[in-house]
From TrEMBL, chains A, B:
Protein's name in the database: Transcriptional repressor
Cited CDD domains: Fur_like
InterPro entries noted in UniProt: FUR, Fur_C, WH-like_DNA-bd_sf, WH_DNA-bd_sf
The organism of origin for this protein: Verrucosispora sioxanthis
Cofactors required: Zn(2+)
Length: 143, 143
DNA sequence: CTCCATGCAAACGCTTTGCACTGAT
DNA sequence: ATCAGTGCAAAGCGTTTGCATGGAG
């Protein structure tokens, strides 16, 4: 398994991606967020903050950045949303209530996936698991 | 947990859905399929088979039938696809190669979900889990 | 007889693409 | 100097909706 550990901020050239004002802005906007953002949301946020950037650029950049592993993309209600990946974990817990995405403890999944595979013959994509539900906070709030 | 066991063919009225020529055709087209179909695919199949049915009717019917539990819907590459549910299991294994959908043995999941919840506080939607990967056949074919 | 359901066509919203220009390497 | 990246506007595509008609209960 090749490590795609995301560089802190911008070692873009090292991955074969040119460093541009727009891409930096997008990465910055996405940094520190626990909730994913759609292309439109990113565009609105950036233009609202005074940046000059085209919508299609946002789409293309997000696509590219996800491709090289700097972002993770999620299917949220028929829309594509992106988030910076905080680590190498690609197993996510998505809260359908508040949109929060947390990482799933790998060891917890791996054992189960192995068992699943052994039992059913089905080979799960261990590096791309999105589990829907309610996060701890929303679960607590619901009671 | 309320049982939503799908009636063999058409106890539609019992669920509050009127029995129409179009809905029966849709259910028939979907019966016995292991792969899900998109609205467009269903429409093409039906009109190709000589049925007179509007595209929007297909959309509305699929939506409604999924709502009452006769169909399961899946997000497949940004599109919505539907399949008749063979049983009460709502935990699916989706093959990204051939599109095959199989049911996941409930006991295998439930224990794990319980553990996940206890460990993380996250409450998974146990009745709506879609796991992507390669089915047994495609896994075998790949080697 | 009353509504739910249908068909058609228009509208919608998100995303992609063509093309000429800009800017990073 | 070269070519990836950008901006704009138009097109694409799956899906939804308004409205008048049709058929199930």
């Amino acid at each position: 398994m090749t490590e795609t550990a995301p560089p802190a901020d911008a070692s873009l050239p090292a991955i074969g991606v040119r460093t541009t004002r727009q891409r930096q802005a997008i990465l910055t906007a996405l940094t520190g967020r626990t909730h994913p953002m759609t292309a439109q949301a990113v565009h609105t946020a950036l233009t609202g903050a005074g940046h000059r950037i085209g919508l299609s650029t946002v789409y293309r950049a997000l696509h590219r950045l996800a491709e090289v592993g700097l972002l993770h993309s999620f299917e949220v209600g028929g829309e594509r949303a992106y988030r910076r990946c905080p680590d190498t974990t690609h197993q996510h817990l998505l809260c359908d209530k508040c949109g929060l995405i947390t990482e799933c403890p790998p060891h917890l999944v791996d054992a189960w996936l192995t068992e699943l595979r052994a039992t059913t013959g089905f080979t799960p994509h261990a590096d791309r698991i999105d589990l829907h539900g309610h996060c701890a906070d929303c679960t607590a709030a619901a009671r």
